[in-house]
Amino acid sequence: MKKAILKDSTPLVKALCLLLIMLAGSVIALLLYSLCGNGGSIGALRFLQSLQSILIFTVPCIFGAILWSDRPLHWLRLDQLPSLLPTLLTIALFVCGVPFVNLLSHCNQQFVLPESLQAIEEWMRQSEESAHSLTLRFLSGMTYSDLLINLLVMAILPALSEEILFRGTFQSLFGETRHMHTAIWSCAILFSAIHMQFYGFIPRLVMGAALGYMVAWSGSLWLPIIGHATNNAIAVLSYFVCQHSGIDITLADNIGTGESLWLGIVSCVVVVVLIYALRRSLTMSKASSRKSSGN
Predict the structure, then answer these.
(1) Which of 75, 107, 125 represents a domain boundary (last residue)?
(2) pLDDT digits (tens, 9 = 90+) for 248-290
């Protein structure tokens, strides 16, 4: 088999190569959008979101892995499917963690910069409002067909592409020269910061770290992909249910805060228990695999 041409390169060289490929993917995505897009319509925005997920994140990471690994899918942790119990625990973790995430978001929103940095704080709030407005455009007035499309465009594709980029690629590159915990938290910080939603930085940071540990414990990228997709799908489904039942969406967003603060605390405890159960399950699964292989 022909050796990957960048196999012996440093992580920095690999990262720079990846960024160049991502830049090329961005150019191709913009060209396709300009040729096929229809202004600022919802359909065009969905198309652009899909192009971003595929051409800027997913394809460059796969191409990069081919350049520096003889087994690219193994390097990306995509060649090993998780067993049923860890999968169910991962889904339960993100479902039960919704009030805890809301509580973290509420705490994050209390963040206030000093008066000397008021201009930066205003920029942060405008960035947050812009991202929220775009999300509402995707989610408002959903029909059942819109729901299916949004689940694909806003839940499945972003989960797949972002996990391949952050946990599959960057965490692996960071892990070549850094301690596992440093690599996980570095990628979690990058993951949260790149969304440019500063008043959701803390919950996204915590989620990124949890996803990173899932990869480290399981050796598979599929658990983080499933967890990330579950988290995104919950948001889409919540908006859909609220719109069609007449419930104020802010009620769902505030579960775990204010009068339901106790629910956020209970959710935190449940999350800790589920993480412990998940790690124990993965540890026992690995031990069983080693025993059956005779190692």
Answers:
(1) 75
(2) 777 778 888 888 899 999 999 999 999 999 999 998 877 666 6
Q: Do 121 and 142 sit in the same domain of this protein?
A: yes
Please check whether residue 144 lies inside any domain of the structure. Answer: yes
Asked if residue 295 belongs to a domain, the reply is no
Check if the beta carbon of residue 235 is closer than 8 Å to that of residue 94.
no
Contact, 223 vs 90, CB < 8 A?
yes
Q: The tokens 């942790």 sit on which residue?
A: 77
Sorting pLDDT into bands at 50, 70 and 90, what band is 294?
A: low
Indicate whether 101 and 207 sit together in one domain: yes
- Residue pair 208/187 in contact (Cβ under 8 Å)? The answer is yes
For the chain, give the secondary structure using H, E and C. Answer: CCCCCCCCCCHHHHHHHHHHHHHHHHHHHHHHHHHHCCCCCHHHHHHHHHHHHHHHHHHHHHHHHHHHCCCHHHHCCCCCCCCHHHHHHHHHHHHHCHHHHHHHHHHHHCCCCCHHHHHHHHHHHHHHHHHHHHHHHHHCCCCHHHHHHHHHHHHHHHHHHHHHHHHHHHHHHHHCCCCHHHHHHHHHHHHHHCCCCHHHHHHHHHHHHHHHHHHHHHCCCHHHHHHHHHHHHHHHHHHHHHHHHCCCHHHHHCCCCHHHHHHHHHHHHHHHHHHHHHHHHHHHHHHHHHHHHCC
% of the chain at pLDDT higher than 70: 95
Range of the domain at 22: 1-75
